[in-house]
């Protein structure tokens, strides 16, 4: 099997573990410490920010404009409008800036 | 047992009640399923691998994160670890929803947890909080159609994504950062959101220039998580810890 297939299968197993693990592990404790819970709550925001920030930092003008537009749209609209709005600005920007 | 018999006759209507909740979710995630398929093909996946990932991982954002990293030369375990990190929030969903699976058998729980995606969690909590029971039939009624369409639409995206003539002009290679930013902005109501975003952004950029890719992801993310854990807990969280809400399951695992 190729490397991609192995990565997919390993990710599938670990993802399933996160989905039953909370019940199996955390339910043994009647309480989760607020600091642990705050840390767990911050994980998705922190991971996704760490993915976006360097991409924004190294981006060209078209890409930077698209991110600014997507961020602003996100304050008002849903995921769908963010996505298509950002993509539209990106396509227009690449048309003008090359 | 009388409970068992009344149970069986309700299962059908419970299933369809769940399925109705799944419908808007199917529509909302369809473009992202198709996008995943199309981007995966551009990143060297086969159609089989697209379907395999959607069918076994079944977690939109993390599948996209995986794609972003496949495009670079990164050690396989780091790709797996990044996907795991994005899905780590499910630990909290699992602990919360597990309390509502009172009458479920161990097998039903094992199957149910596989489908515990964000909207499934949200609707289960909503149903539980309104005082209705979160039954297995209702739960699967919502989960199965969402799952089937997620896998099918990924495959559709893979099939047609291979036909895209000029990915750069259409911005295909930069759609993922836009998507991730949309998710980050969507989280903005969470406690400590702004401090977490700021520190993760600054630290990941510094790590990117100093240490290099892909370590900026782990280092930047860790900075945000540590900051969130180090800040003083909110009075509400403090109170819940000192006086925990009752467990509805009435049994252990």
TrEMBL record, chain A:
Keywords for the protein's UniProt record, in alphabetical order: Membrane, Transmembrane, Transmembrane helix
Membrane-spanning segments: 6-26, 38-59, 65-92
One Pfam family from the record: AzlD
Taxonomic path: Bacteria, Pseudomonadati, Pseudomonadota, Alphaproteobacteria, Hyphomicrobiales
Entry superkingdom: Bacteria
Keyword Membrane: yes
Name of the molecule in the record: AzlD family protein
Automatic annotation (TrEMBL), chain B:
GO biological process: L-valine transmembrane transport
Residue intervals passing through the bilayer: 21-41, 48-67, 73-92, 136-156, 168-185, 192-211
Compartments where located: Cell membrane
GO cellular component: plasma membrane
Similarity comment: family membership: Belongs to the AzlC family.
Membrane topology, as annotated: Multi-pass membrane protein
Superkingdom of the source species: Bacteria
Keywords tagged on the record: Cell membrane, Membrane, Transmembrane, Transmembrane helix, Transport
Species, as recorded: Nitratireductor arenosus
Pfam families recorded: AzlC (PF03591)
Name of the protein this chain belongs to: Branched-chain amino acid ABC transporter permease
InterPro entries found in the cross-reference section: Brnchd-chn_aa_trnsp_permease
